[in-house]
Amino acid sequence: MSNDTLRDLSQNPLVHRLGVPRIPVLRRHAPGAPLLDGPALVGAVGDGTLAGPVRALLAEAGVAEAGADGKVAAVVLDATAARTIDDLATVQEFLTPAVRRLGPSGRLLVLGPEPGADVEAAAVAQALDGIVRSAAKEVRAGATANLLVVAPDAGIGSSVRFLLSARSAYVDGQVVHVGPGADGPDDLAGRVAVVTGAARGIGAAIADTLARDGATVVAVDVPGAGEALAGVANRTGGTALQLDITAPDAADRLHAHLRERHGRVDVMVHNAGITRDKLLANMTADRWNAVLAVNLRAQLAINGALLDEDLLSDTGRIVCVASTSGIAGNRGQTNYAASKAGVIGMVRALAPQVRGRGISVNAVAPGFIETEMTARMPLGTREGGRRINSLRQGGLPVDVAETVGWLGRAGSGGVTGQVVRVCGQSMIGA
Q: Do 203 and 251 sit in the same domain of this protein?
């Protein structure tokens, strides 16, 4: 849990009356909890065809459709038919009263079209990006706003459920493209998942979350973390593999373990990463090479081995943990930023190569996440990291894990080549 004293104090009415802004407590997923904690308002622009399927999805999840007034837990607008500037006026006419009704930890989700060759239609499609990113900075009390760009024949169910749910508590102001792909069950039952760097922090949270949702987890970390790694494996009912992923035979050893124990892998989560911070003017080759070896070179080698041997299933999912530092850069982290930007480049290049095999490749880019490492930061640096986002707080390891879990589902194959920031709409790199 977060040790955010200012957020906790801000809940006190007396402190709030003294002028301290209230920092919202975000609604996060709990097993058995409903998709939404209230009704949803659904609308469409023109002859949009997705409002009906969204209503059906919500009804199946037990979510009531909102009446003419009162608070709502979600607002969904199908704007996939928006093509003209006049259509943007329709978007505004729907959203202006709708966002006033959005309750605490509410969800605003806009479905938009892929830009085409028509100039005005392309401008309108991009305009939706600006609307949603701005709305995400305006909605209050832990509410979020995201844009799902939908290609023809896209399978949207998994993505809509995730972005409306409490699982996406720290995913805000994001634009996610979804293409053709069948929807599947909203769990990970029967899937075999490998998580590197699983002994602690974000990696342990990913292992816990995947196991909670039904996956069999192979937890991987260095031999020096063996005791903690065994604890994760025992807790999740999975297996532990002590492995230095930078070793020359690491990919072969992982491959052999998976082939012998499971016969395949469905979800490959590249979470292992290190930092060796230094200003570029003082950077040494050892610091540079160590970070690139763990954070990037090992991922390339493992992916190559899994793909060459067809060990990934036909609904295989590769999920790589990048960082907002790889998007915006960070002082003293040229090596780390290079490695994480490299991960993003790898994802974008690999995704179209393997899409025909039913495999998706995506990156999750955390922002400021409350971990043991960030807890050791100087107070001013830590508070700055927490507050420079639209939700005015740090995320939790489980927020990254929930996003990885969504991308690891069989029904999320339409999302590929994407970089999803888990950063509360951080101003860094926005």
A: yes
